């Protein structure tokens, strides 16, 4: 399937310089002394967030199932510039878990902030249907971890797109994407030079594999 997607209208951002930091404000770097399975002592450099919530979980990613009366089941994905990779990234809505928050509370809050889905206008039409376990984001390099929160949103016929509630300095564009064609849309974004986040790519690839091999078919 050939899918066409529109380029972002977020404007241009760029990285001007990269400087080695002896000490970071948000991220720390440690050297681990450890012993492998052969009894050999080794060292390993590891990065970690300094903002980890009391529950030990850093962040939540959100899959929001948008159920519309006359449109295919879709999810909102977001486009935003990411300085570490100096490119526009295509991602699931996500964010850090605040102090004393659960993953579910953070998921509902971040979904409303980044996409507009949530809040009083969606009362009785939005609910968390599943929260995954704690998973490491990059276990070979970092202690950072997250949970995947799946949220179901009931939409109404003729209802307009909600307005995100972004923090100052946030530049995010929302793209509502049919779930069945998610993988093809991500390939189209890659052709524009955008980078697809690994979590979203793997999620879409899983759907594509299920379609190809008929997994879950009755």
What does this protein structure show overall?
With 218 residues, this protein is α+β, with helices and mostly antiparallel strands. The chain has three helices and eleven strands; from the N terminus they run ββββββαββββαβα. The chain has helices spanning 103-115, 182-191, 198-213; strands at residues 27-35, 41-49, 59-67, 74-82, 87-91, 94-96, 126-131, 135-136, 145-154, 173-178, 195-196. Strands 3, 6, 7, 8 and 9 form a five-stranded mixed β-sheet that branches. Strand 1 and strand 2 (41-49) form a beta hairpin. It is globular and about 60 Å long. The relative contact order is 0.20. The mean pLDDT is 95.
Shape by Cα distribution: globular
Q: Which assembly state applies to the chains in this document?
A: single chain
The profile of the biggest β sheet is: 5 strands, mixed
- Can you give the mean pLDDT? 95
- Work out the helix count: 3
Counting helices, strands and paired strands, the structural category is alpha+beta
Name a few traits of the molecule:
218 residues, five-stranded mixed sheet, four-stranded mixed sheet, 3 helices
Topology at a glance:
Layout: E1 27-35, E2 41-49, E3 59-67, E4 74-82, E5 87-91, E6 94-96, H1 103-115, E7 126-131, E8 135-136, E9 145-154, E10 173-178, H2 182-191, E11 195-196, H3 198-213
Parallel strand pairs: 3-9, 5-11
Antiparallel strand pairs: 1-2, 3-6, 4-5, 4-10, 7-9, 8-9
